[in-house]
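Entry:
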Amino acid sequence: MTDRHEEIGSALPADLEALPRLRGFRLRGMEMTRLETFIDAAFAFAISMLVIAANQVPDDIETFLGAFKIVPAFVASIVVLGIFWRGHWLWSRRYGL
């Protein structure tokens, strides 16, 4: 075995079958890392900025009805951010780097 193979093997847990599974994947990263915490804060900040940017109180009925035109874009933005956050969360659990 080469030094590289030994280095890779030393990072693996002794008993891989003891790791919990989620849909067939071994979950190797069960603890929150500093990077994952930072990413969570960045997503929370991005969603907060979306909410602050959309926080305009309409003065009359025309402005109020016009405000509904931005609702689909606002919801789509939050959904896209949620999809990216979920993908990062799942990747962090599966690979535990």
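The beta strands are 21-22, 25-26.
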